[in-house]
Amino acid sequence: MQQHYYTYKEKFDLEFGESLEGFTLSYYTYGQLNQDKSNVIWVCHALTGNADVFDWWNGLFGEDAIFNPKDHFIICVNVLGSCYGSTGPTSINPKTNEPFYGSFPNISIRDIVNSLNILRDHLGIKSINTLIGGSLGGQQALEWAVMHPKMMENLIICATNSKHSAWGIAFNEAQRMSIEADPTWGDKSNDAGVNGLKAARAIAMLSYRNYSTYEETQSEKDVNKVDNYRASTYQQYQGDKLTKRFNAYSYWTLSKTMDSHHLGRNRKSLEEALQSIQAYTQVIGITSDVLFPVSEQRFITQHIPNVTYEEITSLYGHDGFLVETYKIAAAIRAFFKQKNKKRVVL
């Protein structure tokens, strides 16, 4: 594993009318490019994810996993707006020489993809063998496949959608309302809104998991217990855990980015955008996902020309795309096997 930084020094115009005076991207790479640079696996991470894909997608990525550094050149980039080294709300605004904080501009999935594509060009990577992402990462991967349909040979998307739903936006708004209710929100400090972020994460967990998850994992064994329930302490734990590694300004920014995701914006239609994707595509849904329900993945599957679809059974809801890595790896192996069979037939 190697960590790198790339700085783009030109003005970077954003989709919603604002701009950045350049940007920095922090990214990790694993393995080596082969001679013809045909072994690139590009990973797009989710909302609070980071570039260390071997950490959070272990089982799918690793020394002995389906995507490994012996066979592949794996790259994952911390997205714009995050707090893991790429330009975001806690970065220095060159116009003021102070951190952006609340003045950081609204960014879209397309802005993120444009920054990734600039990095790809800088690295001299002409094509991507496999582009993969889940949730917000899947939104990025889909947008990239629409914007540059000849760039990637294979596209794998998990637990994601072609436009963010009213249901998903409502969850995100409830989380932002929690952050807003923190009296420190708006302070020019990296710790601004930290208790609000804790509450926001507790709300998010209800959408990342589901009724059955909590009944199975957080139910009380002691029928006489009347306080300090496992489900309560679990919510507290998850909130505390996130505040130790993430920033409320970045959470706010990227939740807004997710809300604005719509492949059909300023295009003929959502359906035609999906139909323009040329990559051999695998769409993976999680049967118990209440945040990105399988109806969204089935819709995507209906409109991409060269596509396979797989549903993963999981207790863990939306988080199943992070938990059920061995099931997902098996589905991906079958996807590549089917592709090879198609090539033989042709």
TrEMBL record:
**Per the UniProt record, which EC number(s) apply here?**
2.3.1.31
Residues bound to substrate are: 201, 319
Q: Which reactions are catalysed by this chain?
A: L-homoserine + acetyl-CoA = O-acetyl-L-homoserine + CoA
UniProt-recorded Gene Ontology molecular function terms: homoserine O-acetyltransferase activity
Protein family per UniProt:
Belongs to the AB hydrolase superfamily. MetX family.
GO terms, biological process: homoserine metabolic process; methionine biosynthetic process
Q: Which residues form the active site?
A: 135 (nucleophile), 289, 318
| Keyword terms of this UniProt record | Acyltransferase, Amino-acid biosynthesis, Cytoplasm, Methionine biosynthesis, Transferase
Q: Where's it mainly located?
A: cytoplasm
Compartment annotation: Cytoplasm
Would you name any one GO CC term?
cytoplasm
Q: Where is the AB hydrolase-1 domain?
A: 40-324
Q: Give the function comment from the record.
A: Transfers an acetyl group from acetyl-CoA to L-homoserine, forming acetyl-L-homoserine.
The top of its lineage is: Bacteria, Pseudomonadati, Bacteroidota, Cytophagia, Cytophagales
InterPro entries to which the protein is assigned, alphabetical: AB_hydrolase_1 (IPR000073), AB_hydrolase_fold (IPR029058), HAT_MetX-like (IPR008220)
How is this protein named in the record? Homoserine O-acetyltransferase
Class of the enzyme per the UniProt entry, highest EC level: transferase
State the gene name recorded for this protein: metX
